[in-house]
Design goal:
Length: 514
């Protein structure tokens, strides 16, 4: 029997362990195994949705650290682990990478499935919002692994098959179509889930924009493997209305009992600025550098370091606790501000960069690639408090190139690309994704997905890879399947490997990255 899906006791144990660091009061009422409910009382439905949102962004500090900080934030090179954690050298610790899997299948999806089932016939607007959130949860999980259990997950079967990623994406588009159609005809005076909707407080108009932007993201994700479908889905999303301003940004609420996981990590002093980030931000004179990072303790300057160093190299390149490297911005993300710094889900700036890429593809994006690219930059700068029009225009028209970071290895500049929109398409594509990468900060999961899809931004290769399946000159491509699944769901895992069209290795590309 596969306990991951069918044992209530396993879910209770995992849920209780994850709850020890503090849960928001909004879902204390269901801080037990959600799979034990045969149906949700009406008053509990919003709490279950809040629980799925909160855990869906890995908000708990321990979960945030394991999923973001120790893996995807390093692979997207937003940060370096100054403590020498092996994930920075492409090592996958099965005891840690299982966290995203367990959260999805024992908390997030069981909670959300109960909400979807409970609202299917009685609350169409709430049901539609829950289905949009389902797509958000599962597209991230699938992008981490490739094939995953999806269509039959949560049905109580003894063996749960994995589904091909292509089938998942087709279902994502279908779900979004249905949900967005429902919301378009909904009474916008409603507020489904009320304040228990931790993102938009039931604002249907904003959920419409979020859903269309998510569909646009997924369309660009499949643009190399299925360009015809990608164009249809992208143009449909843009015509229906995507995010256009920072008021549309999606964040998960935080509070004294539901802290920002990234903020909780600031005092730990391991998450330091990467040399790649420093090279771009310094070379571009990017005003977001002071918003993302703090100056180093010893000289008040900004310092980064290459990813993939061994502990012995780190001991030479930086003091053990990294005091001569730049930390994350401890004014924005610290114990003092963690109650007011919300957790990012999706930014409006991303929508502009997605549309800019769509325009380059020759699709109807509602504007030119150049204009949309520049709007994306301006929207990101404004989001981070840079509102002076002259400063924004100066940055947008900048011709300076990334700078040598002045690091321990005397690395040259990471790339040769400016901010000002180029005249050739190849450079334009690089610029769009480079600026999107800068704007997505600190969303390492999405940044890593786009790095795999596009090969941009150009980043320094890791100094060392301790994963025999991934060379230091390449990038890691996926999480491998869980060892626990090999033991308890073996046939399904073997079938899933066939769906990968390659071995179960971190170097095997997922479907949309073929």
């Amino acid at each position: 029997m596969n306990r991951l899906y069918n044992s209530a006791m396993a879910a209770v144990l995992i849920s209780s362990l994850l709850a020890t660091s503090g849960c928001t009061k909004k879902f204390d009422a269901i801080n037990t195994d959600p799979t034990t409910f045969s149906a949700l009382p009406p008053a509990t439905i919003p709490k279950a949705f809040a629980r799925s949102q909160w855990e869906g962004v890995f908000a708990d500090p321990g979960n945030y650290e394991v999923i973001h900080s120790l893996y995807t934030d390093l692979w997207s090179q937003y940060f370096v682990d100054a403590g020498g954690f092996p994930g920075d050298r492409y090592v996958l610790d099965q005891n840690l990478v299982i966290f995203s899997w367990n959260l999805t299948y024992t908390i997030n999806w069981p909670s959300l499935k109960l909400v979807i089932d409970a609202t299917e016939k009685t609350a169409p607007s709430a049901n539609a919002i829950a289905k949009i959130w389902k797509v958000y949860l599962f597209h991230q999980q699938s992008d981490l692994y490739g094939p995953i259990p999806y269509f039959q997950a949560g049905l109580g079967q003894l063996s749960i098959p994995y589904d091909p990623q292509e089938a998942l994406y087709n279902n994502f588009f279908s779900l979004l179509d249905s949900a967005l159609t429902t919301l378009k005809t909904s009474d916008t005076a409603q507020a489904p889930f009320g304040t228990d909707d931790l993102i938009y407080h039931g604002n249907i108009g904003k959920w419409l924009k979020f859903g269309n932007t998510l569909r646009l993201r997924l369309a660009l994700r499949i643009s190399e493997i299925d360009p015809a479908k990608a164009q249809v889905e992208a143009e449909k999303s843009i015509a229906a209305g995507v995010m256009t301003g920072n008021a549309d940004n999606a964040f998960v609420d935080v509070g004294p009992n539901s802290i920002n996981g990234l903020a909780a990590e600031a005092p730990w002093e391991n998450m330091r600025m990467s040399a790649s980030m420093l090279s771009y931000l310094k070379g571009f004179s990017d005003p977001r550098m002071t918003e993302y990072y703090s100056p180093a303790d010893d000289d008040g300057q900004y310092h980064g370091i290459r990813n993939g160093m061994t502990p012995s190299q780190l001991s030479v390149a930086a003091t053990k606790n990294g005091t001569n490297l730049s930390n994350i911005n401890t004014t924005r993300w610290s114990d003092l501000t963690q109650a007011t710094t919300p957790l990012n889900v999706m930014y409006s700036a991303e929508a502009y960069f997605l549309r800019a890429e769509a325009a380059l593809n020759g699709w109807n994006a509602g504007g030119s690639a150049k204009d949309l690219y520049e709007q994306g930059i301006a929207t990101s700068l404004q989001q981070w408090g840079i509102t002076d029009d002259a400063a924004i225009q100066q940055y947008v028209n900048g011709t300076s190139l990334p700078a040598a970071p002045g690091d321990y290895l005397n690395s040259p500049a990471v790339a040769q690309v400016a901010v000002k929109f180029a005249s050739d398409e190849a450079t334009q594509r690089q610029q769009i994704i480079t600026q999107k990468w800068l704007a997505l900060f600190p969303d390492g999961i999405e940044a890593w997905a786009e790095l795999r899809r596009t090969g941009f931004p150009v980043l320094y290769p890791v100094v060392n890879s301790d994963n025999p399946d991934v060379s230091a000159s390449d990038i890691i491509r996926r999480f491998t399947f869980q060892s626990y699944e090999y033991q308890t769901n073996a046939k399904a895992v073997q079938d899933a490997i066939k769906l990968l069209n390659g071995p179960d290795k971190a170097s095997t590309r997922v479907w949309w990255n073929k």
